[in-house]
Design a protein that fits this description.
Blueprint lengths: L3 E5 L5 E5 L2 E6 L2 E7 L3 E6 L5 E2 L1 H9 L4 E4 L5 E5 L8 H10 L2 H25 L5 H9 L8 H14 L12 H22 L18 H6 L4 H13 L7 H8 L5 E4 L2 E4 H4 L15
Parallel strand pairs: 1-5, 2-6, 5-7
Antiparallel strand pairs: 2-3, 3-4, 7-8, 9-10
């Protein structure tokens, strides 16, 4: 069963652990509790939030990321366990020594899956998307001609309208995208750590200041699912990252996708050996 994303957006709360539960408190006492074993990620977007070291230890034992978001709803910190898999040392060594031809082929597959899924989202919205199938076929090992960027230039105006510009510092739809990607990133981070891999050793992303490079790589094919959820929110009148919007976006991790192993939640797909084999278009 997929877990829950716990998002803390109320200022001045304290988070602790008690008998297997994450407990939320304020000055008047307990506000609520969630079983730790039911949690996929904790997202902290409030000001003045405090939490106990025991809680962080308990989350780390379960490979649950604790993500801190900035004012623009972008993640600025993610606390992850340093040891969570019996074969971790060997796998990290393999990451470090992976030959470049292999990493280039892996990135090619991720970009192809992302572009195909962008096309599937557009087709789901009734937009002709045959060009995206063609673009996906044009991606070569390592994507040296940056077909990913070519697809993005076509994709965003078709999906969100000709006036839309992707801007991580902007509000509205951009802020909703930021929050949805933070949810997606937390799920990918948990899968990476649970697999015994180091999140900072990426396939393609290689910024020295990015401790989540591999996470940012493996989440790429699933971004269109956030895009579609954001579009639906905007079409329903959402203009800010409200509590209702957060609930809709947090549900992305439990969205069912079809894979070679059958229908399974997105949070499980992060752990599969390859991206989903059918477009990530939710039902309804």
């Amino acid at each position: 069963m997929p877990g829950r994303v716990v998002e803390i957006s109320t200022d001045g709360l304290h988070l602790a652990v008690l008998r297997g539960f994450l407990v939320v408190k304020d000055g008047d006492g307990e506000r609520g509790r969630v079983p730790l074993d039911d949690i996929d990620a904790v997202i902290a977007s409030a000001h003045g939030l405090t939490f106990s070291a025991n809680l962080l230890n308990a989350l780390a034992d379960r490979n649950v990321p604790f993500v801190v978001c900035g004012p623009n709803h972008m993640p600025i910190s993610a606390m992850l366990p340093v040891a969570g898999h019996h074969a971790q040392t060997g796998r990290i060594r393999a990451q470090i020594t992976a030959p470049q031809p292999l990493t280039k082929r892996l990135w090619q597959g991720l970009v192809q899956a992302k572009i195909r899924n962008q096309g599937a989202v557009l087709a789901h919205q009734g937009v002709p998307a045959g060009a995206f199938t063609t673009l996906a076929r044009q991606v070569r090992s390592g994507d040296p001609t940056n077909v990913e960027a070519q697809a993005a230039r076509r994709y965003w105006p078709l999906l969100m309208g000709p006036d839309f510009r992707r801007d991580t510092e902007a509000g509205g739809a951009n802020a909703l995208l930021n929050y949805g990607y933070a949810i997606l990133r937390s799920g990918a981070a948990r899968a990476v750590v649970a697999a015994g891999l180091h999140p900072s050793i990426g396939i393609h992303h290689s910024n020295k200041g990015n401790p989540m490079a591999l996470v940012d790589d493996v989440m790429e094919p699933f971004r269109p699912l956030v895009d579609l959820a954001t579009l639906r929110l905007v079409q329903a009148g959402a203009r800010q990252v409200t509590a209702d919007a957060k609930r809709e976006l947090a549900a992305i991790l439990i969205q069912d996708l079809t894979t070679t192993r059958g229908t399974t939640p997105l949070s499980t797909c992060h752990s599969l050996p390859c991206p989903s084999t059918s477009p990530p278009v939710p039902s309804g």
